[in-house]
Amino acid sequence: MIIAVCSFPGAPGVTTLATGLAALWPAGPLTVPVLVEADVSGGDLTTWHRITGRPGLVSLAASVRASSDPVVVQEEGTRRALLRHAAELPGGLRVVAAPPTAHEAAAVVATLTRRIQVLFSGVTVLDLGRVMPGTTGAHLLAQADAAVVAVTGNDPSQIHRVARCRDVLDALTEGGTRVGLAVRDSRFSADEITAETGYPVWASVPTDTTGAAFLRGEVTGPRGLRERVAAWSHTRHNPDGVEWMPLLATARRLAEHIDDQIWVREPSPAGARRLEGAAA
Questions:
Q1: DSSP string of 47-61, one letter each residue
Q2: What is the pTM of this model?
Q3: For the chain (length 280 residues), average pLDDT per consecutive 10?
């Protein structure tokens, strides 16, 4: 399944939220969440976690581009194939990082849209960055099982942009996708935001510099590298251990909510057609 995290122009914090969702996704013996950074404007993960030169979106795109036979491509779309192009961060989070520059990222993301079936296995959290209708990012967004739109709640213009992009979100829901909002430190109530945009608020994302720095792989305060790695590992095995960081606690609750939404969803004929089109 694909969980897409995106914003419309002007709303930051997408990669941080996507990283938190993937890191705190409800654990299971066969669940290996993979964070795929598919932002056409360029990625942040290579810089944050110093993973330049390791497998990533470039190697994944090259792999699927070399497989012109649809049957071969579909076989390459197994979880094992995706994991081969993922780097492992401290604590076990697997990430497929995008190139940091826009001209490199745009090319490999475009390749991914033509071989989208490589993402349909296990739990894939897709970081799309800022999405505009009719773009490559919007095409990838249309493949998601659940879309989380991150907006800056303190600025009414961000909420207005979501409302103006209602046709994009409506197309997703018509295909069976669950859509909800993650709103950053809003001074508006959830009911007010829903009334304006037509979509429920799934999470209120707090300003948490420690949690954000933690997700970026930075050493903050008195924590050394060993303590930070141990803390990250602890959160993977004991989700309650993130409560001391509000941002990670929020990401965990949001991940659980999305997981519940997906599993209770009834099969959608429109959604089935979307998957068939991706595999074609």
A1: HHHT-TTSS-HHHHH
A2: 0.83
A3: 88 90 82 90 91 84 68 51 86 90 92 84 90 86 87 83 90 91 89 94 92 79 51 52 82 92 56 42
